[in-house]
Amino acid sequence: MFAVADTLKKNRKRWKTLPAGERRENVEYLMTLEDKEFYKLYLHYTKFWEKERGWEYEKYSETFSGRSVLEIGSGLGYDGIIYSNSAEKWVFCDIIPENLQFIQRIADYLNVTNVHFQLVEDVINHDFRYMFDGFYAHGVLHHVPFEVAQKEVANIDRFLKPGAKLIILMYPYERWDLCGKPPFDEFGCMTDGEGTPWAEYYDELKIQELFGNGYCLEDSIKWGDQNAEFVNFELIKR
Ligand SMILES: C[S@@+](CC[C@H](N)C(=O)[O-])C[C@H]1O[C@@H](n2cnc3c(N)ncnc32)[C@H](O)[C@@H]1O
Fold first, then answer.
1. Which CATH number is 4-237's, of 3.10.420.10, 1.20.1560.10, 3.40.50.300, 3.40.50.150?
2. Distance 34 CA to ligand 1 centre (A)
3. What is the pLDDT of residues 65-101, one digit of tens each?
4. How large is the C-alpha radius of gyration of the chain?
């Protein structure tokens, strides 16, 4: 059995450094930059995200159009900033305050007003305060052991309306297989570099088990390097 507190403690340390452009950047460092340099760098990063995730932005802007969306693990937040253009409301949630402060600074700069921010201190009991008809977790839930993710999802379920659309990015089985099926505490270092405490693969059976019978898996899309780098699961709450 895995202790939730231990997993979260490790993730809070690791995920202050996030994918940003051609490398990874520490959010505490980014927040020390003067406005001009800060926004210039952010605009530079967006070019990489657009290149990698442009197809997602096109597809999921439509999926989330007019919806009130909960995002967990928002990182540096560019995806949510894009989707907030078509969504009614976007709620950024993260376990690290500095990550949320970074997005708040960008949202202020871009004058994005239909966004909210919530720091999640207790991932299995957090009160998200609103009911949502959209949910987004991009590269998040595979960074905790399945048992922890299941508890986190059971809590999130309380805040999703029937008909809610969910987009969840995970690492596919094929990526784990190509790495030689390592233990998940070693797989994390292979996918996201030194110090990454955990990464798990997901396939269709496992995502269905994570969300349970209350959710219907509508599609799964493998993409990235050799079509084995990422998998997007598209679900709907019954
Ligand atoms: C790999 S980053 C992904 C960031 C962003 N979603 C993206 O696609 O670029 C993982 C993010 O999830 C957050 N996180 C890690 N574990 C979490 C958990 N159990 N629940 C919610 N957020 C978590 C981290 O602080 C970090 O911002």
1. 3.40.50.150
2. 25
3. 999 999 999 999 999 999 999 999 999 999 999 999 9
4. 17
Q: Which ligand 1 atom lies nearest to the CA of residue 123?
A: 20
Question: 7-55, pLDDT tens digit by residue?
Answer: 899 999 999 999 888 889 999 999 999 999 999 999 999 999 999 999 9
Smallest CA separation from ligand 1 atom 25, residue: 15
C-beta 143 within 6 A of ligand 1? yes
Q: 207: Cβ below 6 Å to ligand 1?
A: no
SS (H, E, C) the chain: CCCHHHHHHHHHHHCCEEEECCEEEEHHHHHHCCHHHHHHHHHHHHHHHHHHHHHHHHHHHHHCCCCEEEEECCCCCHHHHHHCCCCCEEEEEECCHHHHHHHHHHHHHHCCCCEEEEECCCCCCCCCCCCEEEEEEECCHHHCCHHHHHHHHHHHHCCEEEEEEEEEEEEEHHHHHHCCCCCHHHHHHHHHCCCCCCCCEECHHHHHHHHCCCEEEEEEEEECHHHCCEEEEEEEEC
Assess whether the C-beta atom of 123 lies below 6 angstroms from ligand 1: yes
Q: Where are the domains of the chain?
A: 4-237
* Ligand 1 midpoint to CA 14 (Å): 10
Ligand 1 close to Cβ of residue 94 (< 6 A): yes
- What is the pTM for the complete model shown? 0.98
| Nearest residue (CA) to ligand 1, atom 9 | 75
